[in-house]
Model the fold of this input.
Amino acid sequence: MSDSPKKDHGVLYIGMDLGTSRTSVSASNGVRETVYSVVGYPKDVVSMKLLKKDVLFGKEAIERRLSLKMFKPLEKGVLKYTGDAAMDAEAKQNLKAASDLIGEAIRLAKPRKDELVYCVIGAPAEASLKNREAIIEAARAHVDSVMLCSEPFSVAYGLEWLEDVLVIDIGAGTTDLCRMHGTMPEEADQVMFEIAGDAVDAELKRLIEESCPGAQFTMQMVKDIKERYGYVGEPSERCLVELPVDGKPTQFDLTDQMRRACSILIDPILKGITKLVASFDPEFQTKLKNRVLLAGGGSMVKGLDSAVEKAMKERLGSGKVIRIEEPIYGGANGALKIAHDMPAEFWEQLK
Amino acid sequence: MSGFKETLKDAVRQMSFRTSLESLKKKGVQQVSVLGIDRIIALIEAAVHRSLRQHFHGIEREAVADATKTEFLRMLRSNEDLQRQKSEVERQKERAEEEIDVLRRDLANQQQELNLKLEQSAMSVASRYQGENAAIAKKVADVLRTLSSSENLSVAVAEEKVMELVMDVVSSERKAAEEARAALRDREVETLQRRIGKLNESLGQTERRLQEVAAMKSIDGGISSIYRDVQGVAADDAHQGKKKELMAEIFKANLKLQRKPGA
Ligand SMILES: Nc1ncnc2c1ncn2[C@@H]1O[C@H](COP(=O)(O)OP(=O)(O)O)[C@@H](O)[C@H]1O
Done:
């Protein structure tokens, strides 16, 4: 940003949640935006001429995917960049995709050219050191100063829950549990597993295939159906869905399949909670159990908070689970708050 | 502090208006930007905080209140200005597009009307002449019948005479009437043609204007932050100590991460 004008108009804080499936920003100018973490580059000169762009993001990229080389640079929650000397061309392109995506997310926040831009990025807690460096490198190109923090921490911080909180972030690729007790979470405070949104989609797909012979559908349709009807516990409505059979729309009742698919989330979450509670200072275990926070897109599965709470009461004697109000922006809002609270001298030193 | 927030929330809620998605759609709105109430509150709060901090010592409440108001308005205005500029261009574009649509429709109508008129007049002239001819023939026959009952006149001569007379009258009548009608028709056609010409002209103008607006493309200069200076944990934050501690830890981790090799 060396060619930019004098930055004397103000300070723009940007909080960013860099997720596997979605990247969201929340900024101190009131902007909130989200984009699917997908980047596409035209396959050839003809596509480039046709699309009139050299890079496309999110929905637009997905819509034009046939003429694009697609990247999901945050797949499995980390930048697919190993950082070793023998970095192959693919990894290089992935890194570029990550950089472009971060740039796009910052553009979405609509910064003024005459404002200092300070950005906090909530990255997956388990991101490796190399991955973190790659994220920082990508962001530096677009902002004046940037800091990384772990995503579950930013979610909790956003809600002013600074100690004794258990954050459960159910994303697409991974579910991340993180125990917070006043300081930055360490290795032992985190549990991560791969039963999350995508796994629910896969299970639902399997169950539909099993019970609806002849029904034709894509993974995207399964995901859409889940996001519309996903629930555990008691159904509040029948999940009636039309799927084509031999090209003819046919109605199926997927209520039961839906509950079974979404329920695969519960058990591993309980195991994770148990592990993090059991290894916590006994004096504070009850307090921790009573402050469980469900976040991430997967937390929108209806009834999941009650189901986890019920299971906690059965297996751990007590439990209170709260679902974050805005799953999509929880991480970004928290990161924004951290950016705000960060003292000037710290930002200066990282410029 | 939370009491203050609640009051603000109430105030903002009172000032806001409710509308349904349906009615927005009816108005042609396809997408809305949503500014969450918490964001609005944060905006107001930040304004209040900043001026409170600047004026906290000694100066009476009014000054604080005034400064708050000014500050809030400044922030609001700088955001609004940009939004306004942008929506102004968009509005202009929409208006121009609407205008063009109206003009196009108008033009099509006028042209249709003109064609109809020309067709109609051709048809009515033909049928009128037919009717008139028949009436004349009847009149002539009547006259002949009367004449033939008198004996001291050759029928042929009489017919010729009468015919001459009648035709003379009729043709002059006809000529006059046609002239009058043609004049009228020409006037109508001329007006229509003039109107069409005008429409065409303004259509061209509007289209040019639309192109100009389109050429202005992105005047989007970004949206101002609500902060003029770097903030930090608020001095009156109940968790100030803890938060500062956490910030220092994040910073330390980042310093380690971002220290360039050799630096
Ligand atoms: N309404 C919903 N009900 C259930 N699952 C949802 C809903 N909305 C989004 N999801 C799921 O949440 C997951 C994405 O969550 P998100 O927090 O955005 O992911 P990440 O942190 O990995 O980017 C996806 O699997 C998506 O299908």
Summary: Chain B has a mean pLDDT of 72. The interface with chain A takes residues 35-36, 39-40, 43, 79, 220-233, 239, 242-251, 253-255, 257-258 of chain B (CB under 8 Å).
